[in-house]
Amino acid sequence: MFLIRCPYCGEAREEQEFSYAGEAFIQRPPLTCSDEEWGDYLFKRKNIKGVTTEQWLHSAGCRRIFVMERNNVTYEILSIYTFESKRGAA
Amino acid sequence: MKRLAPQAHERIDRSKTYQFTWQGESYYAYAGDTLASALLANGIDVVGRSFKYGRKRGILAAGVEEPNALVTLESGGYEVPNARATEIELYDQLNAKAASGIPSLRFDLRAALKPFHKFMVAGFYYKTFKWPQKLWPHYEHYLRQLAGFSEVPQQADAEHYDHQYQFVDVAVVGGGAAGLSAALTAAQSGASVLVIDERAELGGELSSEFASSAEAQQWFSSTKQALEQMPNVRILKRSTAFALHDFNLLLVIERRQDHVSLKQRNEKQSRQRQHRVRAKQVILATGSHERPLLFANNDLPGVLMASAMRRYLNEFAVLCGDKPVLAGNNDSIYALAEDLVKRAGVKPVVLDMRVGYDASRLIAAGIDVRQGYTILKASGSNRVEQVSIAKVYYDGKLWSASAATETLDCDVVATSGGFNPLVHLDCHTGSKPLFSNALQAFLPACDKPARISAGSVNGHSDWQACVQDGAYAAHQILGRLEKSVAPTTVKPELKLLNVAPFFCPTHQRNKIFIDMQNDVKASDIELAIRENYRSIEHIKRYTAMGFGTDQGKIGNVLGIALAAQLLNRSIPEVGTTTFRPMYTPVTMGALAGEEVGLLFDPQRFTPIHASHVARGAEFEVVGQWMRPWYFPKAIEHLYDAQSAEDLHTAVQRECLAVRNSVGVMDASTLGKIDIQGPDVREFLARVYTNAWAKLAPGKCRYGVMCDENGMIIDDGVTACLSDTHFVMTTTTGGAARIYNHLETWLQTEWPALKVYLTSVTDHWSTTAIVGPKARRVIEKLCSDIDFNAKAFPFMDWREGTVAGVPARVMRISFSGELSYEINVPANYGRYIWEQVMEAGKEFDITPYGTETMHVLRAEKGYIIVGQDTDGSLSPYDANMGWAVSLTKPYPFLGQRALTRSDTVRTDRKQLVGLLPHDAQKVLPEGTQLVNAIEDKAMIGHVTSSYLSPILGRSIAMAVVKAGLSRMGNTIYAKTVGGETIPVTIADSVFYDTAKEKLDGEV
């Protein structure tokens, strides 16, 4: 069970307060994309063994979604950051 | 077997005598006894029958590792199945019976099958009862009855349970020498410390030393006292840490009332509590369990662990036998021998497999010490009466026994085959224990962050070293916590018990038990290996070694050692099986905590609920909400008898009332999301399929929401309050999901949109007045809104005062009738409802529930998302192409998907109406549809089906392949019951197709 530090609340809280919200940084293709590209966007996920980049929602807290990089083999959380900080850095 | 004269450090309180019942007979023992010590003190040898062979079994251990003494404790709502007698603290009037014995403890059928036992090897059932395979469930039913222990309790648990969260700097598992020492060192630095110990009193195995070491007693008392006085220390006694998860989530079960007699239990207090501990650092001072020596008939009552015999002697003043034989392969047995001489004046025969231990003191005291000897076989009927012993030799790799045997008379055999450190918790997160040849034991790897082990779990055997190791471990973790620490201590040296390598005598026809609880014998392990099972995980599953409530605490390491010997591999090469939570069995109730009964799932009530109850409504649960289902009226019969309408009659009446006069419905449960910000219109245009750019304040619009796959996920009406303020309604069950969906898009894909969402579902109460006379009712309550049909047209909303309460009145309809939905702040909800009832009296206003609502909407072909749609229906499939705008500047969610090759197929399942040829036949919902009577290929299914009172006939909605282009065709519904019902495909709007009723009475 993770102990997750919500970047908005600034506190480490029980995993029970959060919910997984899918792979992060999936690019939404334009309307002009092919059926195949749209299908990939909708259904294909990387399913990495190792370091994954995920969206997590602080569902029983501030209800904000943030990014969590973690190793799904060792359960190590490598980093947690907001989309805003990512955009700021880019 | 007897109770000795008072001992200096005994745990029992002889001033309090408790009566208890065992197997229906009454016995007495003292406060402080466990059920096991009480049974031993009363001379009861046989406490159970074995799992498979029905063999007589006695108490083997003194703690949590006990495999044999499983009992059914109490009965009725207090029944505890498979409780371990060694852990049950005796209370007055305790009632227990053996968990085994078919039909009884005295006579077990399975034991009577002895001539067949040689066939009942591992895998026997699967091999024997395999043909014909289809009969296996039949065999299984009977075999299951022959196996197992306690029956499942038949009554609901009379007690309750709760959870508590703990956040501490340091959690110490184990209150023995190492744990207490670690806790004290940690606490002295100012860290918050939680000490968890499974016994009623702290001390662990250290308590067994008090009798022989005043120094141990003194250290314990002062340490305990110091800890108890520190405000930053919390001590949980009678508490077992049963799981250690990642990020140091330590799960602990605290037995708060199990030791209290049933009469004295406090009903207001939970019986057990689950502590969910988050510790910055965990110190595992879990200790170790002794393992037995192996020999034939090692399961006879009277054969027990040396450490257990010592505990019964020192802590409970119970002597397990007058003529003991002590056998061991390490130094620890000599301590028991000394205690026996000193406390009970009994002279045991001591057999040591090894040679060289200096036992001159014991020999001088007249004890028969035989080094280089061990037991090959025990015999006896109800308990052990004799052992045959032989000289053994070790050639550096294997043991061999001399053919010459000697027989000793005895009445108890205590053995020690070394110690198994309790590595379980450390292994729960995937660490593998490491084997030490010097200790002949698996040690915890402790290779995960923020934890450390201390004491006998690290292989320490003397209490002084454990104390030192505890302090050392605490120093290590305090450094990590950046707490100031006292001068460092050094890691203590391991004082070896010189445990000899594993030995299992040849058994021929004798049974040598590896796992007593599951009746796994040495020969079963051999068989598994002969049948080419190589992995210890496979050997375990084939033989059932380490299954059951004790999870192999006593036997697993022996099984591993035996497998290693037979496979000619080293013990670490064979490795251990996987340690998984729970460490010990945990009550279901403690896992559930308070989330049972009404608290299992929240129930939500509308502000009007009390009025519905008063009117006798029947309720149904819709997305946690308790919604009125229908309002049955009382029916008067002759002779004053009364009954209530059934669903059908009530719905018939409610439907006609709405169609012909006026009805009222509680619509408070619909999800409501308040949306504000300069970009609201753009946001709505992106999440709904239709256009929102031009909706003026004061107007409402129906919207269909799709996912990115182009399939309908929700629908509802959104009202425009101003250019920057809208209120969206969602389906009752979808409220939370849709709110999440919208937030996700705002936060991840469209952070530039200036839009804020607030869930206001509970803030508003909605009373819908529905029917041709609706206007007449609302006009009586509200004078500041012009309700003229032209001034306040369909799909408009107005702000006004209804019965003195500020309200938003929306003219929207889910029935095709004139309808006003009065939204008021929730606290006025019930007042408004009653005002409407009062105002509507002259029109015989009829409250109606969800069932009538469903019939009315189906008559108009309005869909219910989740009933008529199932995640595979696009707006086009639902015949709602009118609600799709493909010309918006930013494509709406799902727009791209609507042009995918699969989505544009013309033979997709489409939503249509069905009219059964037999107008009184109501199709069961979910019924499959086929093209021709003889067809089996289904072309769709019924999604909604009702008897329409206003039409006087049955109607249905269904999805049918290419249904929209097949109007008027006859297809067939095939019911589960085998009926084939002809139906005609029709438009899904069955009633008032010209929409003449929308304005009500003019």
Overview of this protein structure:
The complex is a heterodimer of chains A (90) and B (1002). By secondary structure, chain A is an alpha+beta fold. Helix content of chain A is 18%, strand content 36%. Chain A has a single domain (3-89), classed as Folate-binding superfamily (Folate-binding fold). Chain A contains 2 helices and 6 strands, in the order βββαβββα. The longest helix of chain A has 9 residues, at 35-43. The N and C termini of chain A lie far apart (32 Å). The mean pLDDT of chain A is 92. Chain B has 1002 residues and is α+β, with helices and mostly antiparallel strands. Among the domains of chain B are: 2-127, Ubiquitin-like (UB roll); 161-288 and 421-480, FAD/NAD(P)-binding domain, CATH 3.50.50.60; 292-416, FAD/NAD(P)-binding domain, CATH 3.50.50.60. In chain B, strands 9, 10, 11, 12, 13, 14 and 28 form a 7-stranded mixed β-sheet that branches. A 6-stranded mixed β-sheet of chain B has the order 42-43-44-41-35-45. In chain B, helix 7 (306-316) packs parallel to helix 8 (333-344) and helix 12 (522-530) crosses helix 14. The longest helix of chain B has 19 residues, at 463-481. The chains are: A alpha+beta (90), B alpha+beta (1002). Chain A binds chain B through residues 1-3, 14, 21, 28-29, 31, 33, 35, 38-39, 41-42, 55, 57, 59, 63-65, 75, 83-84, 87, and chain B through 165, 245-249, 276, 278, 429, 708-709, 740, 743-744, 747-749, 751, 891, 895-897, 900-901.
